[in-house]
Amino acid sequence: METAPKPGRDVPPKKDKLQTKRKKPRRYWEEETVPTTDGASPGPPCNKKNRELRPQRPKNAHILKKSRISKQPQVPKKPREWKNPESQRSLSGAQDPFPGPAPVPVEVVQKFCRIDKSRKLPRSKAKTRSRLEVAEAEEEETSIKAARSELLLAEEPGFLEGEDGEDTAKICQADIVEAVDIASAAKHFDLNLRQFGPYRLNYSRTGRHLAFGGRRGHVAALDWVTKKLMCEINVMEAVRDIRFLHSEALLAVAQNRWLHIYDNQGIELHCIRRCDRVTRLEFLPFHFLLATASETGFLTYLDVSVGKIVAALNARAGRLDVMSQNPYNAVIHLGHSNGTVSLWSPAMKEPLAKILCHRGGVRAVAVDSTGTYMATSGLDHQLKIFDLRGTYQPLSTRTLPHGAGHLAFSQRGLLVAGMGDVVNIWAGQGKGSPPSLEQPYLTHRLSGPVHGLQFCPFEDVLGVGHSGGVTSMLVPGAGEPNFDGLESNPYRSRKQRQEWEVKALLEKVPAELICLDPRALAEVDVISLEQGKKERIERLGYDPEAKAPFQPKPKQKGRSSTASLVKRKRKVMDEEHRDKVRQSLQQQQQQQQQKEAKAKSTGARPSALDRFVR
User: Fold this and answer.
1) Order of all β-strands in the sheet with 340-344
2) What is the pLDDT of residues 518-562, one digit of tens each?
3) Where is composition skewed (Basic residues) in this entry (predicted)?
4) Whole-number Å distance between alpha carbons of 595 and 94
5) The domain spanning residue 389 has which CATH number?
6) At 476, which helix (H) or strand (E)?
7) What does DSSP say about strands 373-378 and 362-367: parallel, antiparallel, or unpaired?
């Protein structure tokens, strides 16, 4: 009989199911496992022919080839390693020796900073304090960005210097026109209009358009850069003053009887009869208010966006023919015949302040663009510059031979005074500094008495209206060299102007917010707040904001007995009492330290009676 073969000899044993699974192929980056005899994991299967296993070559490896030119062994090239682009800041591969953003000078940052960091944050809740800290951080970041963007302002202000100590006041306009380029020389011109003079003039906010009106009814508006006439009419009535409104498309003319509004085509749009016998006009661009001063002694504010009169204030000082505005806080300055200058706001029926400036009547008033200095001239032939930062004291005084009838400040702080048919200009150290009245910067004589003065925005040009017409003078260093294209763009199109009008109307500032210090709007009126709180307590009979008495929460398992509740209430009351005592002790210590510091500063000898001093 045949016997079945044993599984250990000729017949191969059956493979286990786990061994029959297909093995995972080895990748080229994995290390090769060497098979061992101790039942370790076997290596890859061999072919029928006994071939040697060759490891696969990585893709980035380089094969050494024999050079046909030189017999020297070649050095394998190292594969390129990936580098962080932030650490490699130049094409050459060298690191930046000054990493990070460029530092900004502290003086430049402070010029754009609007938060006073010397004042500490008030004690408030954690949420409110965190909001204040975030606002301060955002303001600091904004000021740094503004300081960095100042590098993009390539234009620089002009200047005029004499050779070898030459007096610049002796340089005439003809010499300046010959020295400047053709484009700047074209900005100097004379309009001979003796038939309808004297003239009052006004430039638009962008500095591109000019409007002037004569005493005999002649009104015209033009693009003075290209000399393109926009409109020219004769109102057949005396024109006392003229002003552009928020754009060059609307024009306000103070005629002999009423106030009229015209468009840039000379078409009459409105006749405002409530503003009668107007002598002077001022327009507040951020509030859309047209301020008028009349012969009857009334100061009237007209909101041109809705066509309503916001306020009509009686100055009680007789005829008003001297008026100027403060561009910083939109406060109106009125000059009176008793030598005082009063400051007005539409939110108050009484003047905000009164300044005694001259012994005689005030003839002209002007305020610089920063709202820091005010120049006045009176019948006493004196020209004074006052500080408006709370002191209202004269900084400098100069006696003029004929007295100044008209004053105006430029964007860079130059002061011009019209005295008869002579125009004198004084310059200071720059923007934000008072002009020096010792030596005039420029002098020019006109063909007739001066009737109106204004510097052109963003141009070194002074417009003068006189009895013989209109003169455009060149004044180097008068205008701001760089303009904000989103606010006052001289090159804007009609579509851009319309979009700007919509944005300006949305950002219109209410008339009630006009005050002497605009920074006070961001502060809390503590006195009014406490007074309102007292009135509310008296009206209700109790304090609705008072802290409710402590009520312990009930507990389970017999822990809410009457004795435990009273005990917990007394514990909370004791803690509150300790806090009050601790605060009172701290206040007493602070007062004691202040008294000791005062005693040390005065240098007086201590006495036993000091304990009775309160």
Assistant:
1) 323-325, 332-335, 340-344, 353-356
2) 888 877 778 888 898 889 888 888 888 777 777 777 776 667 777
3) 56-69
4) 63
5) 2.130.10.10
6) none
7) antiparallel
- DSSP code of residue 516: S
pLDDT tens for 329-358 read 999 999 999 999 999 999 999 999 999 999
Strands 209-214 and 199-203: antiparallel
Burial class (CB in 10 A: 0-12, 13-18, 19+), 35: exposed
DSSP structural state of residue 226: T
In this structure, the strands spanning 406-409 and 394-399 are unpaired
Contacts of 471 (CB under 8 A, 6+ apart): 189, 190, 191, 446, 463, 464
Look at residue 24 and tell me if it is in a domain: no
Dihedral sign, Cα of residue 261, residue 264, residue 267, residue 269: negative
Residues 6+ apart with CB under 8 A from 608: none
Residue 476: both structure tokens together: 């180097």
Residue 190 in domain: yes
| Token pair listed for 313 | 């204030």
352 in Cβ contact with 345 (< 8 Å):
yes
d(CA 434, CA 324): 18
Q: Which helix or strand (DSSP H or E) is residue 263 part of? A: strand 258-263
Token pair recorded at residue 439: 């030596």
- What DSSP assignment string belongs to 346-404? TT-SS-SEEEE--SS-EEEEEE-TTSSEEEEEETTSEEEEEETTTT--EEEEEE-SS--
* Residue at 220 is within a domain: yes
Give CA–CA dist 394/325, Å, rounded. 19
Structural domain count, the chain:
1
Which residues neighbour 272 within 8 Å (Cβ) at sequence distance 6 or greater?
258, 259, 260, 261, 302
Range in 357-361, 379-383, 549-553 with the lowest mean pLDDT? 549-553
Q: Of the candidates 473, 463, 448, which has an alpha carbon nearest to the alpha carbon of residue 194? A: 448
CA 257 to mean position of chain CA atoms: 40
Alpha-carbon distance of 496 to 368, in angstroms, equals: 29
Asked whether the beta carbons of 366 and 327 are under 8 A apart, the reply is: no
**What are the tokens at 404?**
């100044």
| Per-residue model confidence (pLDDT) at position 310 | 95
Question: Which residue bears the tokens 């312990």?
Answer: 552
103 within a domain of the structure (yes/no): no
In order, the DSSP letters of 420-452 are TTEEEEE--SSTTSPPP-SS-SEEEE-SS-EEE
As beta bridge partners, residue 394 has 386
DSSP H or E segment with residue 221: strand 218-223
Q: Which domain holds residue 180?
A: 168-499
The answer to whether the beta carbons of residues 243 and 221 sit under 8 Å apart is no
User: Which letter does DSSP use for residue 344 in this model?
Assistant: E
pTM: 0.70
Are the C-beta atoms of residues 253 and 242 closer than 8 Å to each other? Answer: yes
